[in-house]
Amino acid sequence: MPIQRQHTNQRMSQIIVHNGTVYLAGQVGENLSAGIEQQTRETLVAIEQLLLEAGTDKSHLLSVTIYLKDIDADFSGMNTVWDQWLPHGLAPARATVQAKLCEPEILVEMTVVAALPK
């Protein structure tokens, strides 16, 4: 089965589709001056758009890794938005870690693995 790459540059692809699985590169919000709730909302919008482009949606999430700049300050606010966004009963496997992100204004980044619907 071929590997499909979308939105590819020299460094990375935003979407990889292989063998019925969709992999998304790390996604962040657009307004990096916003707080954790708004950055989380924007990140989830970006994820939804890429999943749709790949032929799937958030109901097919398999795994999400969430990177927070400050887990003590932002875990609760991020989870408030996450819990509202996630369809009931369809929680993916998930890990949340604190990380030094590539720009100091980024408060949250998420990587996603999802299944393609059959």
CATH homologous superfamily identity: RutC-like
Please tell me how large the radius of gyration is.
Answer: 14 Å
Oligomeric category: single chain
Reading the helices and strands in chain order gives EEEHEHEE
Structural domain tally: 1
Tell me the layout of helices and strands.
Layout: E1 4-8, E2 13-18, E3 21-27, H1 36-54, E4 61-68, H2 71-85, E5 93-98, E6 108-115
Parallel strand pairs: 4-5
Antiparallel strand pairs: 1-2, 2-3, 3-6, 4-6
Helix pairs in contact: 1-2
Q: What's this model, at a glance?
A:
The chain has two helices and six strands.
Would you write up a description of this structure?
- The structure is a single chain.
- The chain has 118 residues and is α+β, with helices and mostly antiparallel strands.
- The protein has one domain (4-115): 60s Ribosomal Protein L30, Chain: A (2-Layer Sandwich).
- The chain is 29% helix and 34% strand.
- Strands 1-2-3-6-4-5 form a six-stranded mixed β-sheet, covered by helices on one side.
- Helix 1 (36-54) packs across helix 2 (71-85).
- The longest helix is centred in the middle third of the chain and has 19 residues, at 36-54.
- The chain is globular, with a radius of gyration of 14 Å.
